Amino acid sequence: MTDERRLELVRIIKNDIDTDTFEGRYDASIRKKVLFLLAMAVVAFVTIVFSICFGSVDIPIEDVFRVFLHPILPGLVPEPSQPYYYDFIYTGRLPRVVLVILTGVSLGVAGMMMQALLRNPLVSPFTLGVSTAASFGAALAILFGDAVFGTAAMGTTIRVIGTNFTASDFLRVIMAFAVALLSIALVIVMSRKSTTSRSLLILSGVVISYLFQAGIMSTKYFSTDDQLREITLWIMGSMSNASWGANLIIAPVVILCLIYLFRQSMDLNALSAGDEVANSLGVDVDRLRKRGLIVCTLMSAVCLAFTGVIGFIGLMAPHLCRMIIGNDARYLMPASALMGVVVLSVSDLFCKLIIRPGELPTGIVLYVIGGLFFIWLVSNRKWGSRL
Amino acid sequence: MGVEAMRLTIEGLSQGYEGKTIIHDIDMEANSGEVVTLLGPNGAGKSTLIKTICNVMRPKSGSVRIDGREVSDIDKKEYAKLIGYVPQTAVFFGSATVYDSVLIGRRPYVKWSYTRADIEAAADAMIRMKIDDLYDRPIHRLSGGQRQRVTLARALAQAPSFYVFDEPTSALDLRNQLDTLKVMRQVINDTGACMIIAMHDLNLAYRYSDKVLVLKDGTVYGFGDTEEIITPQMIKDVYGVDAEIVEGSKGKFIHSYDSDLDDM
What we know:
Order of helices and strands of chain B: EEEHEEHEHHHEHEHEEHHEEH
Shape of chain B: globular
Strand order of the largest sheet of chain B: 6-7-8-3-9-10
Low-confidence stretches of chain A: 18-27
Number of strands of chain A: 2
Order of helices and strands of chain A: HHHHHHEEHHHHHHHHHHH
Radius of gyration of chain A: 23 Å
Number of helices of chain B: 10
CATH topology of chain A: ABC transporter involved in vitamin B12 uptake, BtuC
Strand order of the largest sheet of chain A: 1-2
Distance between the termini of chain A: 37 Å
Largest sheet of chain B: 6 strands, mixed
Structural class of chain B: alpha/beta
Distance between the termini of chain B: 55 Å
Number of helices of chain A: 17
CATH superfamily of the largest domain in chain B: P-loop containing nucleotide triphosphate hydrolases
Helix content of chain B: 25-40%
Largest interface: A-B, 39 and 50 residues
CATH topology of the largest domain in chain B: Rossmann fold
Mean pLDDT of chain B: 85
CATH architecture of chain A: Orthogonal Bundle
Radius of gyration of chain B: 19 Å
CATH superfamily of chain A: ABC transporter involved in vitamin B12 uptake, BtuC
Largest sheet of chain A: 2 strands, antiparallel
Oligomer: heterodimer
Strand content of chain A: under 5%
CATH class of chain A: Mainly Alpha
């Protein structure tokens, strides 16, 4: 009896759907998770193709494919209808899409990771103050850049990895990143204690945010009208500063961080049972938490430095996925990454289209679309009840 | 599914937080196949002792050894196969299902994905704890008693040599308390593992344990066979409650009363 029941359960968990007993009778949980991942990948691909097609000027979809496929298969795929599409896509649309992917992935994963590490659903990659720190850094660069280095110097171009940045843009990136690193350093100092309580960490993050918020407010207060506008726009976030140079700086950091984080999946699952249980399951909880937080913050900081503040994704993408496929980090992490890409690229698409040929800051559209989507999902009877 | 015979010895153990000593000079011993119950009033140091055994805290002085090896020297992953810990309150985060939560207990044996043996162990554990019908239920839809069963099943899936439980039954109703202890007693008999369990219910302790360690104000009041230790005198000394051990039709039980209350 027990043996039979055991076999039955084993089959259920392993999703041996070919057995007669349970065919069609249960949710194929692993299969469902993989299917969800595949579906998300398809959706992400479609939104990415759309992002390449649409913008200030629309490129016909077949020409997008021709641009990519003609150089590989010149016999099968004809030339795109306009030769300048090559240049347009490779130097304009593609770097932006790559930046959207990198940012979406890193914020989605960092959010999922931070929520799991601190076992708190309200945590996002910015909980430890990295976004206000980066904003303060950028604001300082905007406010003092001209005064310190001179207007002429700030107008010159700097060449980094094949891309021309104006000196003022580059200074902004450097300052945003440097001050964001400072916030990480503060977190490290705070977590020096042998065992750090989760609420202390979260609270410290909030307090650090207020400190930098004071900095942002004072830079705003002392800035000219033009500078004020620039600071405000930076805080709203935008993908329009994308370039291959930026992507080449971001990509290695994000990829290394992702590899590190993904390898912690099983420990992360154990952590969901509480610190003490995770400890007794052989997980070094303190080390996992400290390193994880630092890696997440680093990964989001490097994106933030180029894009400005992109909120919402890190908070919501993991929740959306958790509602649908549950809590197993091995699946939840890639799902959150893909969800981050989808949400961000759809928002970015609308940013480009709503006041065409002008462009809205990402934050405005992102919060509206994301918010409405979330309200719909929560009111959906099937998934809403799982949050 | 038997486990190797092992012995856990604690000698002269002292433990505390930030300069304050909570337990001191604890001596005890637990062998495979035994149920050792920790008794004592709230704040006597049961949880501290348990956390030290589980290596959540390093001993301040004295030693905790398994087969002669100092616990804090054993590799964390290896130790996870020796000791299964269930804390007082169950913690869950996110919307995991029952079997996901139980499978977590296989962490010490698993690098990346669960093998058939892992899933079998989890299935066995769910059947033992009678939660196999709930296997795909999300944890947050379970009752408190069912959740506690999930954490116990997780410890069973871990298949350690020592189960260390901190008042696992205190949130359960009478039926669930009896069930749980019966199942655990059965597990100990079947596998030859050892269970160290902190409890408040003297009758349950009396019925299910082989040995009892009584803590009072952080020191050992008594350690030994159940019938020698659980006496009306001990209950009076440790809890300040009068009690007698009564011979009922189904065996002995402890009848406690407060003589002061009789006057009211």
